[in-house]
From TrEMBL:
Pfam families from the UniProt entry: EAL (PF00563), GGDEF (PF00990)
PROSITE patterns the record matches: EAL, GGDEF
Domain GGDEF: 381-512
Keywords assigned by UniProt, alphabetized: Membrane, Transmembrane, Transmembrane helix
The organism of origin for this protein: Cryptosporangium phraense
Segments passing through the bilayer: 14-33, 39-58, 65-83, 103-121, 133-151, 163-183, 195-218, 230-251, 263-281, 293-314
EAL domain: residues covered: 521-770
Protein name: EAL domain-containing protein
Alphabetical list of InterPro entries matching this protein: Cyclic-di-GMP_PDE-like, EAL_dom, EAL_sf, GGDEF_dom, Nucleotide_cyclase, Rev_trsase/Diguanyl_cyclase
GO molecular function: cyclic-guanylate-specific phosphodiesterase activity
Gene3D superfamilies in the record: 3.30.70.270, EAL domain
Length: 773
């Protein structure tokens, strides 16, 4: 990616102008008069050195050492050529003998070969032994070709001049070796960049020039224009400088794919055939030479061919080893792939199971249960849907912790599975809510299953160190083809809550009237919201009377709505949570109305408080704000609570609120005492001041009232023992008032004294009732 980015984003294209300018200069040198050629050739060579140095400096190639050696070699040879031309350029004698020049040419070629040896080799599965083997094969092939085509003729032509013979024979051989080695790197080892290709072309140019020049020298022939050696040198150095200037010289070459095995095999066959063919050609040419030279012509090519064969054996052994390693790796990868596929299938099954089953109990979850209900609807067979949850499960979590609650759910699921075995389906929908799909069952059978489930849940559970007693409420809904799954679950849920409202620990069969009542309650909630927004509520007051004197010492604030009775809208407000907003509004209004009554008559006011209000974190602040805004003293306010505050997670917060308000002077009364879930222990724990005896305990004028007399007397004595006041509700007659007064009750209220009346009427009634609190 880096390579392509550099080649694409580098805007420098002037290397092309350098190449075109150099080729033009070489053409000028070739066509120039003989007297001008030395000067033009020297200028072209100096420009080439400058371009080469500029390319190394600008691109900073990763193979910088290689390029520096090339620069040194080109500079050394150019300097040698300049020294050769001092007589033509400056009229000075040549300071170097011809033999030294030949040795310098050989040294330059050795430097170029060393530079190419520094270039890195890329490729997969390549080791130092592999590289050395391939280089050796190429070298032997070059020796055979060079011996047959160049060295042997040179030795014959220059037998009397050893220096010329050595240099003239070694230079083409070194050139051919450099070309083949570099071409191998470029074409097979991953250096296939424009810079690498230009380098190969440069070496081919040098080799061609030297070879043609040597052939001309052997034949004493004449050439047109500049000598082939000079042209080859100029073109070769120009291409080297262009390769250094090209932007691809700055990129570390990336490995490319190795050639196919067929290509490699055919290449090795050709290399093997080079030796015999070259030897045969040499023998045909040397038929008339002395026996010594003929023997040498045979020994050298055959020796090189033998070495090539040995190296090929090593190379093929390495190839076989690599193939074996690849086969082993492939087998290992195949085995690993099979294991991975197996693990993937297992993971897929686990994920599928997790997506359709409850992680705690392992039962089907809501999604899978819904699909099962859909299938049952499509089958057209009679089926029944049961929906149940535990009564008071939240208290188990609050009292014993969620770990115990989870263990209880697991034990419950195992027990119920023993009741509804397959083909029936038990599922956990969430929390403590479970569902059962009874397949191919009629109504009577479904009822028996419902009773069996409730009986199983009633039996105590041994969970950790605790023995827990539970019960469940259950809703039953037969499946109908025209009713969808969501509607069926909703109907069963309505039946379940009907069972809870009916007293829990029982089941209720779905009836369309349940949905009618549910929709009516939903409409009631909507109307309640509108009434709160539009201020449609009012507060009525019922007096609290001193039974000994008959004076009105207090009032109870009661919410009223012109459209509905309290029995209709108060339960809807409780269930929807709107009781918090309604209760707050009643509290503030009652404090405002009672402030003047308390100031003028000493009248106290009692306000009913819902358990939902007591669970609010800011309830104390709400009460204090209502008192402060109205100017009503805290001692003139009584908060009436029901015994339901003793249930659920809100009890600690409720007690905290009540205790804090009592310290501020507000009084607390328990409303409807004796009808809820309280115990005598709570009379000690709760911060209360008064007990309000429910109307159910008020005696009637009948012979059977003796028990009620005793019960009322007991409650009054109990209150006195705890130093609590008493208020009796529901006094309807003068006889009840007199009896309750004789039983020791202090205060009472009811229709005998007054129905709830508006605030204005209460103000008028309190005027003649003025008495100290």
């Amino acid at each position: 990616m880096l390579r392509e980015t550099i080649l694409r984003d580098n805007p420098q294209h002037w290397w092309r102008w350098f190449l075109l300018g150099g080729l033009s200069a070489i053409a000028v040198v070739n066509l120039a008069p003989p007297d001008a050629r030395p000067l033009l050739c020297s200028l072209a060579e100096l420009a080439t050195i400058a371009g080469l140095a500029a390319g190394i400096r600008i691109n900073r190639p990763p193979q910088r050492l290689s390029w520096l050696i090339v620069l040194i070699a080109v500079t050394l040879l150019t300097g040698t050529k300049l020294l050769q031309r001092v007589d033509v350029l400056f009229g000075l004698p040549v300071p170097l003998p011809p033999a030294a020049v030949d040795w310098l040419f050989l040294a330059v070629y050795l430097l170029l070969a060393a530079a190419l040896g520094v270039l890195p080799l890329h490729g997969r599965h390549r080791t130092k032994l592999t590289n050395a083997t391939e280089v050796g094969i190429l070298a032997c092939t070059v020796v055979v070709l060079a011996w047959s085509g160049v060295i042997d003729p040179v030795l014959d032509a220059f037998a009397d001049d050893g220096v010329v013979a050595v240099t003239a024979s070694l230079l083409p051989m070194l050139g051919l070796l450099m070309v083949t080695t570099t071409a191998r790197r470029v074409l097979t080892a991953g250096m296939r960049t424009p810079s690498g290709v230009l380098t190969v072309l440069a070496l081919i140019s040098l080799l061609a020039g030297d070879t043609i020049g040597m052939a001309t020298r052997l034949d004493n022939g004449a050439t047109f224009g500049a000598s082939p050696s000079m042209l080859g040198w100029l073109i070769g150095t120009l291409l080297l400088a262009t390769a250094a200037l090209h932007p691809s010289a700055a990129v570390d070459p990336a490995p490319t794919e190795s050639p196919s095995r067929g290509v490699v095999a055919h290449g090795y066959v050709l290399l093997i055939l080079v030796g015999p063919i070259a030897t045969a050609i040499s023998l045909l040419r040397e038929l008339h030479q002395p026996a010594r030279l003929m023997a040498l012509d045979v020994v050298v090519p055959l020796a090189a061919t033998t070495v090539t064969a040995v190296l090929l054996v090593f190379r093929l052994t390495a190839v076989a080893r690599v193939a074996e390693q690849r086969a082993t790796t492939l087998d290992a990868r195949t085995a690993a792939l099979e294991i991975a596929l197996g693990e993937q299938m297992t993971l897929r099954r686990e994920l599928s199971h997790q997506a359709t089953h409850d992680p705690l109990t392992g039962l089907p979850n809501r999604a899978l249960f819904g699909d099962s209900v859909e299938s049952a609807l499509g089958a057209g067979q009679p089926a029944t849907l049961l929906l149940f949850d535990l009564d008071g499960f939240k208290d188990v979590n609050d009292r014993y912790g969620h770990e115990v609650g989870d263990e209880l759910l697991v034990a419950l699921s195992e027990r119920v599975q023993g009741v509804v075995a397959p083909p029936h389906l038990l599922a956990r929908l969430g929390g403590d809510e479970f569902a059962v799909l009874l397949r191919d069952t009629d109504h009577e059978t479904s009822v028996r299953y419902a009773e069996a489930i409730l009986a199983a849940v009633r039996r105590p559970f041994r969970v950790c160190p605790y023995q827990l007693y539970t019960a469940a409420s259950l809703g039953l809904r037969p499946l109908e083809d025209e009713v969808g799954t969501a509607r069926l679950l909703g109907d069963a849920d309505l039946a379940l809550y009907a069972a809870k409202e009916a007293g829990r620990d029982q089941f209720v069969c779905y009836d369309p009237q349940l949905r009618t009542r549910h929709l009516a309650q939903a409409r009631m909630v909507d109307r309640l919201r509108e009434a709160l927004d539009e201020d449609q509520f009012s507060v009525f007051y019922q007096p609290v009377v001193d039974l000994q004197t008959g004076r009105w010492v207090g009032v109870e604030a009661l919410a009223r709505w012109e459209s509905f009775s309290p029995d209709q809208f108060i339960p809807a407000a409780e269930d929807s949570g709107l009781i918090v907003a309604l209760g707050t509004w009643v509290l503030r209004q009652a404090c405002r109305d009672a402030a003047a009554w308390h100031r003028d008559h000493g009248t106290r006011v009692a306000v009913n408080v819902s358990v939902h209000q007591l669970r609010e974190a800011n309830f104390t602040v709400v009460v204090e704000s209502a008192l402060a805004d109205s100017g009503l003293p805290p001692s003139a306010l009584t908060l009436e609570i029901t015994e339901s505050v003793l249930l659920g997670t809100g009890m600690p917060r409720a007690i905290t609120h009540l205790a804090e308000l009592r310290r501020a002077g507000v009084r607390v009364a328990i409303d409807d005492f004796g009808t809820g879930f309280s115990s005598l222990a709570y009379l000690q724990e709760l911060p209360i001041d008064t007990i309000k005896i429910d109307r159910a305990f008020v005696p009637c004028a009948q012979p059977g009232d003796a028990r009620q007399f005793a019960l009322v007397r007991t409650i009054v004595q109990l209150a006195r023992g705890f130093r609590l006041g008493t208020v009796v509700e529901g006094i309807e007659t003068s006889w009840q008032s007199r009896v309750l007064r004789l039983l020791g009750c202090q205060l009472g209220q009811g229709y005998y004294y007054s129905k709830p009346i508006p605030a204005a009427a209460m103000t008028a009634e309190l005027a003649p009732q003025s008495a100290p609190a």
